[in-house]
Amino acid sequence: MGKLDGQVALITGGNRGIGKGIARGLAHEGATLVLAARGVEELNQTAEELREAGTTVLGVPTDVTDEAQIETLFERTMETFNRLDILVNNSGAFDGGPLDELSTEALDNVLSVNLRAPFLCTRAAMRIMKRQGGGRIINIGSISAQRVRPGAGPYCASKFGIWGLTQVTALEGRPHGIVASCLHPGATQVRDLPEGDEREDLMQVDELAQAAVLMATLPPHVNMLEAKVVPVQQPYLGRG
Length: 240
Prior knowledge:
The protein is an alpha/beta fold. The chain has a single domain (8-229), classed as Rossmann fold. Helices cover 43% and strands 18% of the residues. It has 6 helices and 9 strands. Strand 1 (8-12), helix 1 and strand 2 (32-37) form a beta-alpha-beta unit. The longest helix is centred in the middle third of the chain and has 29 residues, at 104-132. It is globular, with a radius of gyration of 17 Å. The termini are far apart.
């Protein structure tokens, strides 16, 4: 018996990297999964891997910058499972450079994926969760939300924003049993490294996912509002 048996979890960017690791972690606890991503081939591959491991998975190709596609994503979730217990806002984008050289296009793209999309998904999820009487929303932030770095203005601003969105969601959701949390990852290995390249300042996605699973499996009256998970060897306190 898993701690999430009977629960439905929706993960954006669930086809690879951190999202895929969180999907595996939630599946291990018995959750039914809805995976959303733009990369259709990887989405189908990840969904099939999880099904082979015994998990019920719905894969929905979704561009999270498109409001209509997000609405369709949540409609399909309810049509298929008639409930939503956990939302993980994980999709992310990065672009940067010196502030005086940044284009508005680069800024808009990062904010659209990293902040606007989580707002749209949160809005849709809260409408469902209010009717249900509760649920959990986990936003994937970054240590860049608190320890900035030069040349990453759009990304840092978006992650500061996701932490603010989390807090507002937690306050507005509280009367309805909706819990909101923010997980700030440090350096995480999201793709294969060149052969022979071993780095101590990276953690694996499944290691990070343990924190997301803990957030998702706490008793309904308990919230881990914020967590920073970093490799021990990664510069953090002195960063920036």
